[in-house]
Write a structure and sequence with these properties.
By secondary structure, this protein is an alpha/beta fold. It has one domain: Rossmann fold (3-Layer(aba) Sandwich). The protein is built from eight helices and ten strands. It has a six-stranded mixed beta sheet with strand order 2-1-3-6-7-9, sandwiched between helices. The longest helix is centred in the first third of the chain and has 21 residues.
Length: 257
C-alpha cells in the first residue's frame, strides 16, 4: 500500500510538471526592415539591429524565436510566420511576442520589403484566432500610436483586439516620428534600446528578478523621453511610447533575468 501511495504521488507530480511545461510555451518573431527595397523609403540601420538583438533576448528567456530582416521581411513571409505562430499555440497560457521595426504611416500601415504594407487590422485578425490571450506586439515605427485611432474608429477589429487580449506597446504617439541616432557607439533606435535593456532586467523596479509588462512600459517610456530631451540630433522633437491593451495584462511577467 505504501509503495502504491508513493507511486501515485510521483505520477501526479510528473503530470503536474508536464502540464506546467506545456502551459509555458513562448513564441517570438522580430521583424526589422533596414534595407527597404522601396523608392522613397530611407534605409536605416537601427531596425535590423533592434530585431536581431531582441531575438537574442527572447531566446535567452526561453522563447522559440526568430528574426526576419530586410529582403526576407516581405509581406507574405511576415504574415505566414505570424500565422504559423498562432497555429502553434495550444494553451491559453502560451505567450506570443511580436516585434516590428520599420517605417509606419499615420493611416495604420507598416512597410514591408519591396513597398508592400501590412495593416494593424490584418495582424489583429490573425492573432485573434490564437488559443492564448497573452499576446504582446511591440512596434518601433513612426506614427505607431495611430493604432489607437484605428481601434476606436473600426469596431469590427477593435473588438477582436479586446477579446483576444492583444497588448500593443508602440514607440510614439499618432503624430510623432520614432527616432534613431547614427553614431559609432549607438546601433539601436531609442525605443529598441530601451525595450531590449528593459527586458534584460533594467526595468525590474522592485528587484525581484521579474519584469512585468507595466514595469517594462514605465522603463521604456522614461528612458525614451529622457534621451530625447538630452539629444542634440533630434532638434527638440518629442517621442512618447504608448501602451494600448487590456489592464488585466499589466502585471503579467514579460521577462525574467
Amino acid at each position: 500500500m505504501k509503495r502504491l501511495s508513493i507511486f501515485l504521488v510521483l505520477s501526479v507530480s510528473l503530470l503536474l510538471l508536464s502540464g506546467n511545461a506545456m502551459a509555458q510555451k513562448s513564441y517570438g518573431l522580430c521583424v526589422g526592415l533596414s534595407k527597404c527595397g522601396t523608392p522613397g523609403a530611407d534605409d536605416i540601420a537601427a531596425p535590423q539591429n533592434d530585431a536581431v538583438d531582441l531575438k537574442k533576448v527572447l531566446v535567452k528567456q526561453g522563447f522559440k524565436a526568430s528574426a526576419v530582416t530586410n529582403q526576407y521581411a516581405t509581406r507574405s513571409n511576415i504574415l505566414n510566420r505570424v500565422r504559423n505562430i498562432v497555429d502553434a499555440t495550444s494553451s491559453p497560457n502560451d505567450k506570443i511576442v511580436l516585434f516590428f521595426a520599420t517605417h509606419g504611416s499615420e493611416n495604420g500601415y507598416l512597410l514591408t520589403y519591396g513597398g508592400e504594407f501590412i495593416k494593424y487590422s490584418e495582424l489583429i485578425d490573425i492573432l485573434s484566432h490564437s488559443k492564448t490571450k497573452h499576446i504582446y506586439c511591440f512596434v518601433m515605427a513612426c506614427y505607431s500610436g495611430s493604432l489607437a485611432n484605428a481601434l476606436t474608429s473600426d469596431p469590427n477589429w477593435g473588438d477582436n483586439a479586446v477579446k483576444s487580449g492583444i497588448t500593443f506597446m508602440v514607440s510614439s504617439r499618432p503624430g510623432e516620428t520614432s527616432k534613431s541616432i547614427s553614431l559609432p557607439h549607438w546601433k539601436n533606435s531609442f525605443f529598441g534600446h530601451a525595450l531590449i535593456n528593459g527586458m534584460r532586467g533594467q526595468a525590474d523596479a522592485d528587484n525581484n528578478r521579474k519584469v512585468t509588462l507595466m514595469e517594462l512600459f514605465r522603463y521604456v517610456y522614461n528612458d525614451v523621453t529622457r534621451r530625447l530631451d538630452g539629444s542634440r540630433e533630434v532638434n527638440g522633437e518629442t517621442q512618447h511610447p504608448q501602451l494600448i491593451g487590456p489592464s488585466s495584462e499589466h502585471d503579467t511577467v514579460i521577462a525574467r533575468w
